[in-house]
Write a structure and sequence with these properties.
The protein is of the alpha/beta class. It has eleven helices and seven strands. α10 links the parallel β6 and β7.
């Protein structure tokens, strides 16, 4: 089936992000005050992140709940600073790649697990502004790798799975997309993501 839509995850594909709480804390200038092996704490943290990214918690509620999850070793204000520090800069060449994709007559879109605070930061990115469509988990109340978010994307754009070339840096998201017939590519977030996108497009007859 011919590719009509190129869909990007954001963090790890279009935007560099901190990959851990500790990395984001360092970026925010907040001293680490927990042990890395506190499994119960990080179970709570993952649950809160999941609620936040489907819009079921406001930013303020999230910051306070995260502070509580760490037994208030971090103040809510510190959590807010750490959270803001997660998003960093665009990957080199990715914005130009998106422009080239559109110049080829393909539709460029994103499908991201995120939250309103990060979304407001991301929307100012030139790469996001270059996209034809911008979709996010907190706007739909759905998150990857749930099949429903991929089906919603198809419905919004009026395309079938095989017409979508999808780039994500998480195996579970790529596997879920493939299970629904999407042409999904696992991106190495530590490498040149723009080059990986261009190589995948070239392999499918869409050199950009």
């Amino acid at each position: 089936m011919t590719v009509r839509v190129v869909c990007f995850d954001l963090g790890g594909v279009v935007i560099r992000i901190c990959r851990s709480f500790e990395e984001a804390a360092l970026q925010a200038g907040v001293r680490i005050r927990h042990a890395s092996d506190e499994a119960a704490v990080f179970r709570d943290v993952r649950r809160l992140v999941e609620l936040h990214q489907v819009g079921r918690m406001s930013a303020l509620e999230f910051h306070r709940a995260m502070s509580d999850a760490f037994d208030r070793r971090y103040a809510a204000e510190e959590i807010a600073r750490i959270h803001a520090a997660i998003t960093r800069d665009e990957y080199d060449g990715i914005c130009a790649t998106i422009h080239d994709i559109r110049a080829r007559g393909l539709t460029a879109a994103c499908l991201s697990n995120t939250n309103d605070a990060h979304w407001q930061i991301l929307l100012s990115s030139p790469a996001l502004q270059a996209l034809d469509h911008r979709f996010a988990s907190h706007l739909w109340g759905l998150a990857k790798p749930d099949a429903s978010i991929y089906r919603r994307f198809e419905s919004e754009l009026g395309v079938r799975g095989g017409e979508i070339l999808f780039f994500d840096d998480l195996v579970e998201n790529v596997d879920a997309a493939r299970a629904l017939g999407w042409d999904a590519v696992l991106v190495d977030h530590s490498g040149d993501t723009a080059r990986q996108v261009r190589e995948a497009l070239a392999a499918r007859g869409h050199a950009v």
